[in-house]
Amino acid sequence: MNTINSSVAVTPSPCTNICKIDAQTGWCEGCWRTIDEIAGWGSAGEPVKELIMQNIEQRKIQQHQHDLSQFDPE
User: Fold this and answer.
1) CB-CB contact of 57 with 69 (8 Å)
2) Which PANTHER family match (predicted)?
3) Average pLDDT over all residues of the chain
4) In this structure, are residues 42 and 52 in contact, taking their beta carbons and an 8 Å threshold?
5) Mean pLDDT within 12-41
6) Which of the residues 13, 20, 36, 40 has an alpha carbon 20 to 30 A from that of 72?
7) In contact, 50 and 11? CB cutoff 8 Å
8) What is the pLDDT of residue 6?
9) CA torsion, points 36, 38, 51, 28, in degrees to nearest 10?
């Protein structure tokens, strides 16, 4: 008899269906992943997916800080 262990975490894809790679950063403008991360998502294990999700959060922070540094109040 096959049973599914419902306690196993499954990291959902961060895809937002806005698939456009930013030439400057190399990140998708929708999900913040690189091409390699997008291509490997389906076969990646949970530890890799969790690392990618952490990287996404760091990229968002990095981009926000960059955007703020470009702001010139004068």
Assistant:
1) no
2) DUF1289 DOMAIN-CONTAINING PROTEIN
3) 89
4) no
5) 97
6) 20
7) yes
8) 55
9) 90
* CB contact set of 43 (below 8 Å; sequence gap of 6+): none
Q: Report which residue type is found at 12.
A: P
CA dist 58 and 67 (Å) reads 14
* DSSP single-letter state for residue 23: T
Q: What does the pLDDT read at residue 4?
A: 55
Cα–Cα distance, 33 to 13 (Å, whole number): 10
What is the spatial distance between Cα 61 and Cα 4, in angstroms, rounded to a whole number? 37
Could you tell me how many residues make up the chain?
74
Return d(Cα 48, Cα 28) in angstroms, integer: 18
3 state DSSP class of 28: strand
